[in-house]
Amino acid sequence: MSKMTGGISDKEEPANAEIQALVEEVKDQITGKMNASFNIHVGNDQCIHARIYKNLQREVSVHSIEENKTKEDPINYF
């Protein structure tokens, strides 16, 4: 693919901090809502995975929880 001004590049590379911040700002403007997953330490070696949702009115709620996790368990979509 030939490169043209304003075109799309074949080269893939990770976003730097400036690009990531821009994407987050635009994403928030477009959707106005957010889903985020967290690994939360609850004591000893136990963790839970929680998916948190923020709606267009900025109200925050816990969408779902997975129990009996460890710090090393990957967070998968649930």
TrEMBL record:
Belongs to the cystatin family. PANTHER family: CYSTATIN 14A, TANDEM DUPLICATE 1-RELATED, CYSTATIN FAMILY MEMBER. This is Cystatin domain-containing protein. Keywords: Protease inhibitor, Thiol protease inhibitor. The lineage of its organism: Eukaryota, Metazoa, Ecdysozoa, Arthropoda, Crustacea. It comes from Daphnia sinensis. SUPFAM superfamilies: Cystatin/monellin. GO terms for molecular function: cysteine-type endopeptidase inhibitor activity. One of its GO terms (cellular component) is cytosol. Signal peptide: none annotated.
